């Protein structure tokens, strides 16, 4: 198994690791700060290198407990250790957007009892789909934007911790966000909690406080059926 440094500390942007497997343009390391993608958050990019050897990491994915780094060029098979460096601007943008999605999700549940059905983030925008039973007007969307910005400005800490499976399944907030969909073989479930607003089972990377997200602006809203609604937004 690859030790996943991003899971304990999302702010790790440089690390050293031993090479576990080198196969052409694909590398498995003993540990990594590269997020392999998932939960609507894209995989990280950056570079791996040592001495004169250097390659860009163009993609990463999880495969049987390992994180596989995909490089733009093959590196020599004799390399034993590598230093990894994330494209931090890109990753930090994902962390801000990811955290904003949690706040948005918490607000629309708290104020409208609407459940999230999906979400996706990029470095410069994000979108969220939810099951919204009420009328879908510009006024409602404006209210969601106002309430979300209010919550973001409250300097709420974002806490990351683990719970045992039984404990997690007994928490109504976690059930709402479908913790029951976490595969049964997972005994320790990683929880991301924005104090007083949103708690989810989540493997992604987030900022430490909602203050780091800044302000959001809704750029589009769509009705995708009677219940299914979408919001698109940017961070300023
Ligand atoms: Zn998350």
Structure description:
This protein has 236 residues and is α+β, with helices and mostly antiparallel strands. The protein has helices spanning 5-8, 88-112, 138-152, 165-169, 172-176, and strands at 3-4, 14-23, 26-29, 31-32, 46-50, 53-63, 66-71, 81-86, 115-121, 126-131, 158-164, 188-194, 198-201, 216-223, 228-235. The strands form four sheets. It has a six-stranded antiparallel beta barrel with strand order 2-3-7-6-5-8. Strands 9-10-15-14 form a four-stranded antiparallel beta sheet, with helices on one face. Helix 2 packs across helix 3 (138-152). It is globular. Bound molecules: zinc ion. Zinc ion binds at residues 98, 102, 192, 202, 204, 206. Residues 98, 102, 192, 202, 204, 206 line the site of zinc ion.
**What is the beta-strand fraction?**
35-45%
- The radius of gyration computed from the alpha-carbon positions, rounded to a whole number of angstroms, is 19 Å
- The strand count comes to 15
**Average residue pLDDT:** 94
H and E string:
EHEEEEEEEHEEHEHHEEEE
Q: In whole angstroms, how far apart are the ends?
A: 38 Å
Question: Globular, elongated, flat, extended or rod-shaped: what is the shape?
Answer: globular
Q: Low-confidence parts, pLDDT < 50 over ≥5 residues?
A: none
Helix content: 10-25%
Total helical elements: 5
Question: Order of strands side by side in the largest beta sheet?
Answer: 2-3-7-6-5-8
Label the structural class: alpha+beta
């Amino acid at each position: 198994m690859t030790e996943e440094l991003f899971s304990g500390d999302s702010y790790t942007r440089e690390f050293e690791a031993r090479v576990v497997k080198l196969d052409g343009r694909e590398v498995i390391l003993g540990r990594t700060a590269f997020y392999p993608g998932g939960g609507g958050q894209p995989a990280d990019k950056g570079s791996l290198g040592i001495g004169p050897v250097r390659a860009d990491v163009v993609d990463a994915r999880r495969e049987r407990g390992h994180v596989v780094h995909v490089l733009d060029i093959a590196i020599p098979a004799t390399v034993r250790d590598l230093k990894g460096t994330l494209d931090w601007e890109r990753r930090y943008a994902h962390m801000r957007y990811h955290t904003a999605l949690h706040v948005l999700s918490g607000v629309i549940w708290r104020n409208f009892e609407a459940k999230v059905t999906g979400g996706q983030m990029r470095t410069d925008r994000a979108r969220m789909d939810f099951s919204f039973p009420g009328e879908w007007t510009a006024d409602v969307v404006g209210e969601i934007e106002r309430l979300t910005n209010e919550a973001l400005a409250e300097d709420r800490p974002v806490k990351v911790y683990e719970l045992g499976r039984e404990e997690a399944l007994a928490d109504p907030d976690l059930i709402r966000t479908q913790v029951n969909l976490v595969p049964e073989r997972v005994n320790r479930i990683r929880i991301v909690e924005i104090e007083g607003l949103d708690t989810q089972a989540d493997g992604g990377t987030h900022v430490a406080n909602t203050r780091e997200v800044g302000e959001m602006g809704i750029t589009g809203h769509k009705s995708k059926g009677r219940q299914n609604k979408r919001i698109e937004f940017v961070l300023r």
